[in-house]
Amino acid sequence: MDYFNYRRSELFAEDVAVQDIVYMHGSPCYIYSKRTLEKHWHAFDDAFGEHPHLICYAVKANSNIAIINVLARLGSGFDIVSLGELERVLTAGADPKKIVFSGVGKREDEILAALKIGIRCFNIEVSTELDRINLLAGQLGVIANVSFRVNPDVDAKTHPYISTGLKENKFGIDIKYALTEYRRAASMAHINVVGIDCHIGSQLTETQPFLDALDRVLSLAESLKAEGIHLHHLDLGGGLGIRYKDEQPTEPAEYIQALLARLAGSDYEILLEPGRAIVGNAGILVTQVEYLKPTESKNFAIVDAAMNDLIRPALYSAWQEIIPVNQHSDAVEQTWDIVGPVCETGDFLGKERRLKLAQGDLLAIRSSGAYGFSMSSNYNSRPRAAELMVDGDQLYLIREREILSQLWNGEHLLP
Ligand SMILES: Cc1ncc(COP(=O)(O)O)c(C=O)c1O
Ligand SMILES: N[C@@H](CCCC[NH3+])C(=O)O
């Protein structure tokens, strides 16, 4: 459920007509609904009731500071994976005590910055990262809170490129060796062991893989307890899927009820790192049809957005719904491939869509709030799109469209 709906035959973002937004700010543009964002965050937070928990929004899904700020005001925590994301969340008003730092390859400067600001916890993914954090914390004279991201070897049953919890994936520490790592950590002078973390993949539509991972994490936590290593939290990562087409993902409330039932009375604080489930359906990408190009084998609608704006279809063959902004077109319904102007055969946003199209029409690509703008690029020297947020009948420009000179900003000619 989101707040992008038709009124008569015109698409609205909350109470603002999408076409009016394009008249003011041009195409292509990303439009987000603040109400949807807040609703999705609350769906996670409210479901925990009195159980101690912290929702740490995964910033990589959409890292615009206005989005982060809306969530920070609700009391959200944040899951970050780089110095850039750390600076973003701090700029947007996040509480350092609610920041967890994941990532397979944290550099020294990144660790130092996070230690200086006093983040809540590092999710360690490599054995030698523990030694690096201990050393750097020692240099600064601070204690680092850590948890290990364990790889529970659970099949998330999702796209192989976004499955992360199998033995052959690069993420986390093999759960077999976790006990040894925890013992090592517990003996270090500048380390405070606070939790366990796992994240098995993205766009999961079933609860069972999460529960399998929880079982393994819980059993590890209990083994640690028996050795006198008491953990404060279990971080179960993100990964809950959304409906793009006909998937029927578990709702956050149902998922969290299942987790709480499995935890049966244990008082570990639960951390979750949802990204897509909070922001995915809170955003659309709007694009204009530049040309219609019927050919002998296919009908192409060439639009002004491309794989550099939204790479998911090209990268994962992801399917995202494409709908007209105005349902007025008198055109005949036909089957179209919606493609961008980039010089790649893989540059498509949707294939074989039944639409009534005319040149100049506006189209909205739904479910674009997550891994849309945050994965965009300047490929083919295309300035990145504007981003806007609607709150009721108010419209805010939250990122200006890039201007051409930004494309070569920082580049230098030879003398
Ligand atoms: C460590 C970690 N946490 C959280 C997320 C967020 O995942 P999702 O957007 O599927 O909720 C990811 C991305 O998959 C991740 O790598
Ligand atoms: N970028 C991916 C998800 C990857 C999640 C990052 N750990 C997507 O668009 O579905």
Question: Can you give a write-up of this model?
Answer:
This protein has 415 residues and is an alpha/beta fold. The strands form three sheets. Strands 4, 14, 15, 16, 17, 18, 19, 20 and 21 form a nine-stranded mixed beta sheet that branches. An eight-stranded parallel beta barrel has the order 5-6-7-8-9-11-12-13, surrounded by six helices. It folds into two domains: 4-32 and 280-408, Lyase, Ornithine Decarboxylase, Chain A, domain 1 (Beta Barrel), CATH 2.40.37; 34-278, Alanine racemase (TIM Barrel). Helices cover 27% and strands 26% of the residues. The chain is built from eleven helices and 21 strands. Lysine binds at residues 60, 162, 202-203, 312, 371, 375. One of its GO terms (biological process) is lysine biosynthetic process via diaminopimelate. Belongs to the Orn/Lys/Arg decarboxylase class-II family. LysA subfamily.
Using brief descriptors, characterize the structure shown.
TIM Barrel, 21 strands, 26% strand, binds lysine, binds pyridoxal-5'-phosphate, Lyase, Ornithine Decarboxylase, Chain A, domain 1, alpha/beta, 11 helices, 9-stranded mixed β-sheet
